[in-house]
Amino acid sequence: MQYLSKDQIINATVQSFAAFTAACAAADEAHCFKRPAAEKWSVAENIQHLIVSTNTSKLAFTLPAFLVRWIGGTPNRDSKSYEALVDKYKEKLAAGGKASGRFIPKPMDIKCGKEKLLQNWQKAAGQFIAAVKNNSSESKLDDYLVRHPLLGRITLRELCYFTIYHTEHHLNIIQGILNPPPLNS
Fold first, then answer.
1. How many helices (H) does the chain have, and how many strands (E)?
2. Residue 184 — pLDDT band, cuts 50, 70, 90?
3. From CA 58, how far away is CA 53, in angstroms rounded?
4. pLDDT tens-digit profile of 54-101?
5. What is the CATH T-level fold of the domain 6-178, as seen in this structure?
6. Which of these, 112, 108, 134, lies nearest to 49 by C-alpha position?
């Protein structure tokens, strides 16, 4: 199996975070807070979802190691590859998996302000990247488990893979909101 190294993970995360930020920054203020459909999240709600998700993931790298091990446990298997983790996540989504609890953004009003929301996102993104850089070694990525609401127990390396893909997943959603396909005539 081919794993991404810690440096490759950091680089891929920086790239996915930057692409997401650029797409969100390109949305005009009014469009950012408008839901494309009643059951679909707005651009702002997608941003808020990623802020909560990324801040939660950061904890796995900032909490004391003994606490992460006590909560999540120790793996009895090797980490999955990026592709295998993404396939598992897509399977969970296809089976009806979706955000729950605190990961569901509350409806947002334009009064929240796009710039403030983007600042909060950039802060969360920067803190996650710093946490991975400063608080994990290559081996630690495979030595600890964390609990994921859809994926179950995953290694820290898999959590990083998830964060990369999850950001890209929401980037694709936002791009679809901002550039909807033309209606059939």
1. 8, 2
2. low
3. 9
4. 999 999 999 999 999 999 999 999 999 999 999 999 999 999 999 989
5. Four Helix Bundle (Hemerythrin (Met), subunit A) (1.20.120)
6. 108
* Cβ 68 vs Cβ 143: under 8 Å: no
Contact between 118 and 50 under an 8 Å Cβ cutoff? The reply is no
Q: What would the pLDDT profile of 82-95 be if each residue is shown by its tens digit?
A: 999 999 999 999 99
Domain boundaries, the chain: 6-178
Secondary structure string (H, E, C) spanning the chain = CCCCCHHHHHHHHHHHHHHHHHHHHHCCHHHHHCCCCCCCCCHHHHHHHHHHHHHHHHHHHHCCHHHHHHHHCCCCCCCCCHHHHHHHHHHHHHCCCCCCHHHCCCCCCHHHCHHHHHHHHHHHHHHHHHHHHHHCCCCHHHHCEEEECCCEEEEHHHHHHHHHHHHHHHHHHHHHHHCCCCCCC
Q: Which residue has the higher pLDDT, 131 or 36?
A: 131
Section 107-136 average pLDDT: 92
Q: Tell me, what amino acid is at 58?
A: K
Beta bridge partners of 146: 154
H or E segment and range at residue 154: strand 152-155
> Is residue 33 a contact partner of residue 63, using CB atoms and an 8 Å limit?
no
